[in-house]
Amino acid sequence: xxxxxxxxxxxxxxxxxxxxxxxxxxxxxxxxxxxxxxxxxxxxxxxxxxxxxxxxxxxxxxxxxxxxxxxxxxxxxxxxxxxxxxxxxxxxxxxxxxxxxxxxxxxxxxxxxxxxxxxxxxxxxxxxxxxxxxxxxxxxxxxxxxxxxxxxxxxxxxxxxxxxxxxxxxxxxxxxxxxxxxxxxxxxxxxxxxxxxxxxxxxxxxxxxxxxxxxxxxxxxxxxxxxxxxxxxxxxxxxxxxxxxxxxxxxxxxxxxxxxxxxxxxxxxxxxxxxxxxxxxxxxxxxxxxxxxxx
Length: 295
Prior knowledge:
The chain is of the alpha/beta class and 295 residues long.
């Protein structure tokens, strides 16, 4: 298991101008990470506001000894009109090309947004999943051509539960479509029913290409929400147990910190604290695995 960081963890710092892509690479290397995640410019223009290029990012990664672990797209295939769906397919295909330019092995994609998660009022589970199937049929050939894995995140409630993700993966049975496992999302606000993140891991573990690690707690700042982000290790997500399971199973991919609690604990405090928690949990899991192997 290797750790990376998504720029979402520093969204506020990027938007305020106190961090840019170059300093993001330096920060991640200084905190002992092995990689960085990047985000598509169409969905996340604040990340590229200084005009950085893919070639620069590749050079900075080499200078800092980091891998570009993943690229990410903010798509929504669950759109009410055919024209809108075609636009989202084109957006993902463009992001696949950008991932190829970066040398990223995979592109994080979303399926879509259910009406309960901010999507169009007409979007329910059945018609939403059908739109996702149709869109993936058109995106997968381009991903294979560019050698970029599409990593489908459990986000936006489409897919929501692990069995929905597994159904999509099994339908295509393609090495170019894998799961992005985000355990906290199974407890998040967009879920109509919570799912045990450990149970979800057991269902998806043979198909996981990348993971997002964050934590959530009962909401305090906004009573209208059930959950709010928090520093890793201070909430409801069983991250230590998940890390132990993944280490035991020999998962050797990247897990990216996705810190979203800046409104509660500032990024420059909360991100290092979250890194420290995750690194300690991994060290404990590695020790336990070594002890088990000696029995």
